[in-house]
Amino acid sequence: MHIRNTRISLPRRFSVREAVTASAALLLTFAHAASSQGVPPPPSSLEKKPATPTYPGDMPEELRAPIKKLAVISGRGPADQDVSGSYEKATAGLVGGMSEGNSRARISKEIGPVPVNIPIPILTLPATIIGGLAGSMQRQIQEFRDALTEEIVNAESPPLTDDGLALDVFWGVRELPSLDSKLLAAGAEMPEGTDAALYVSFGDIGIDVQGKEAIITTSAEATLRHAVTGQVIYESDFHYQDRDTLRNWTANDNAVWRAYGNFARYSLGREISAALFDRVSLPYDLSPVSTKTAKRDRKDKLQLNSKSLTPTLAWELTKEKGADLPAWAQSLDEKAITYDLEIYDGQRPVYTAEQLRDAQHTLTYELEPCQAYRWSVRPAYHVDGIIRYGEWMSFPPPPPAEPAEAVVINGPQGRSASTAPAFTQDYPVLDVACGRR
After folding, report:
1. Of 75, 90, 86, which Cα lies nearest the Cα of 108?
2. 284-432, superfamily in CATH?
């Protein structure tokens, strides 16, 4: 069993050139003006993107099995970049043409087997706004636009960089014992015997203002290619979406907006690694169980209440009646299933535990009193030396208040960014009382 008391740490701070100020403000101003005149917002500069985004689902086991050695590389692909191993040349930035030539960095050609915090001074816009700004709250919209423009230009440690996304994807796949993974700089020489190269990059960031609320959607692209032939094995687009009021997005020095950026990268990184290499859909369901120190709320079945700062959390894994396992999982030993646990407050992960052999766990670090946390577990299936993970335990999201638009989002869709990160909003709630015990 491995237990970590976890908090997200921001990279080292650095200054962004003021030369980007005019371009960022101009882009936002154009988007707002176009929307107010009834003109569609400007199209994305990513002309090479397919007209219809691809959402093929998780990569099937028959494509995963042959890949034993993997290189994770930031960027859209070998044909789209002319980059040296030291990043001396301009690279594709966050949103293609808008930021090409604005990104420069120095990192080692290979980042070893242990993830580390590496300050990479990317001189590029951390978020180029594509969506138009519209609505009747013109003054709030203006303040919202100005605040985000200021944050975009003056952000000293932008989280939404391709290099940061690649590091998060690598963090996920390196845990798999059946996969030898390396994190490479774009243009670096591919290690001998590499089976496939996974290219990851951010796509567009869209902002849709609806009345008093703003919906922000970040997209990322993942392309898996054969290391020798370059043939595409798998490709997909992924999204991270959250919404909140205009005032909440920019309150407290844009705290919610900055937290959104960190969680968008974190969520997209682990979603990419899960979809390609470790997540499976087996006929098992997870549900939380009451314990003496974490009891189900009488009014809200999705919430557990605790008076203890180190409660015991428990869950139940049940197999669907009459369901059969796929061929690759026939030798699955249910007694060998382990669990990973994670707990979040409104801003960051605060507790993780891995490889739990029992369907319950008593926290070894104290939580803060008077707080509502989100928590979840996922099963780890061990089959013939291979580890695959199930979905994180969550409840079905509530139905939308209004009919959903015909826009498919491949990823979490949050409802209140200031309450909790989008991907945790449907996790069970753990409410810790104010009285210490």
Report:
1. 86
2. Immunoglobulins (2.60.40.10)
The pair phi, psi for residue 380, each rounded to 5°, is -115, 120
Looking at 290-413, which runs of residues are DSSP E strands? 295-296, 303-306, 312-319, 338-344, 349-356, 360-362, 371-383, 386-389
DSSP label at 403? Answer: P
For 254-275, write each residue's pLDDT tens digit.
888 888 988 999 999 999 999 9
Cα–Cα dist 377/434, whole Å = 25
* CA–CA separation, 209 and 251 (whole Å): 17
Q: Where in the chain is the domain with CATH 2.60.40.10?
A: 284-432
Report how far residue 249's alpha carbon sits from residue 259's, in angstroms, rounded to the nearest whole number.
10
How many angstroms separate the first and last alpha carbons of the chain?
26
pLDDT tens for each residue of 330-345: 888 888 999 999 999 9
Name the CA radius of gyration of the chain, rounded.
Answer: 22
pTM: 0.74
For residue 236, what are its two tokens?
């997909």
Burial class (CB in 10 A: 0-12, 13-18, 19+), 419: middle
> 75 pairs with which residues across the strands?
none
What kind and span of H or E run contains 255? Answer: helix 246-273
Q: How far is CA 349 from CA 86, 208, 210, 267, 372, in A?
A: 33, 28, 30, 12, 13
360, β-bridge pairs: 314
| pLDDT less than 70: residues of the chain | 1-55, 79-142, 145-158, 400-407, 435-437
- Cβ atoms 72, 166 nearer than 8 A: yes
